[in-house]
Amino acid sequence: MALEVITLQQDILNTFRVSISTENAIEKITYKNTVLSLLASGDGTEVIHHKLPAGHRWALNPEDGWNALEFFYILSGSLIWKHEDGERKLVTGSSVSAQPVKEPAIFFAEEDTEFIYVSSQPVFHYYSKAVRDTMELAVSVEKKDGYTSDHCQRIMKFSMLVGEKLNLPSHELVVLNLAAFLHDVGKVNISDSILRKPSKLTDEEWLEMKKHPLYGYDLLMETKFPLLEEAAKIVVQHHERYDGKGYPYGLDGEKIHLAAAIISVVDSYDAMTTDRVYRKRLSKEEALQEIVANKGKMYHPIVVDTFLSLSDKLN
To answer: Where would I find the H helices in 19-169?
Structure first.
């Protein structure tokens, strides 16, 4: 069943709003100002309140063996529904439902948005255990590696801008969203003495550092969560180079997953424009010049051109 959209009348909307309260939620998840509150649960059905900040995304994705009725209703704000055939704006009072979801869809918050999500099969803890814990691990790794806590968020944000500009299918965007955030999660298995070393790594240390994409792949595959397993196949390639001189496999050209090529450019830009223990940051202009200089060498030419076309949106 395809997603169906209905917009309720204002009087029904007002009645519905009055009945919603998150004060007595069964459980809450808070991450980067996104708040999920489990309001009710019984007979497998869950009612979840989402508070999604402007600029953030939420997705519905089909999964094998999943036959739930899924429904969400916008209490306030608006979402841009990005799907295979284009975009549609959903406003306060709009609701979307499907049983089951058969097409991937991404919803982008143009403004701070709140909505109620109902699933006839439990999803709250399934999501929080497999995805939230991994994301928190990724953030802890980036902090250990000398980045700010916003590094993962920036990589995800800019990667999605490039992916959307390239008109990647909705499902690929969902996976890119996760892979970009989790790209360096494998560094959890790299010792602090290597990650925080202020001087040049020895050959032995560098060989160990180059294993982190493989460690990330293994970690994500171990979750047995389908989307994270797909993300693992991108994470393992994000240090491959267009000219075949990258790692861990030495892939080249179109053999590299496009999503991994996107993350490679975005991650390099963010690294160059961030202060590190061993060097000062480059200016935006200097970093872009460096990326252009390595177009067709380190970086996929189309990804570079697309990234440059979005330069006015970079911090």
So the answer is: 124-127, 133-144, 151-165
Q: What is the pTM of this model?
A: 0.76
What tens digit of pLDDT does each residue of 186-239 get?
998 999 889 888 888 899 999 999 999 999 999 999 888 788 899 999 999 999
Query: DSSP letter at 105?
Result: E
Task: State the CATH architecture for 4-122.
Answer: Sandwich (2.60)
Residue corresponding to tokens 């935006």: 284
Question: Hey, CA dihedral for 287, 290, 295, 297, is it positive or negative?
Answer: negative
The single-letter code of the amino acid at 50 is H
CA terminus-to-terminus distance, the chain: 41
Distance CA 59, CA 214 (A): 27
Structure tokens, 51:
């508070």
Please give the average per-residue pLDDT across 29-44, as a whole number: 80
What fold, for 128-313?
Answer: Hypothetical protein af1432 (1.10.3210)
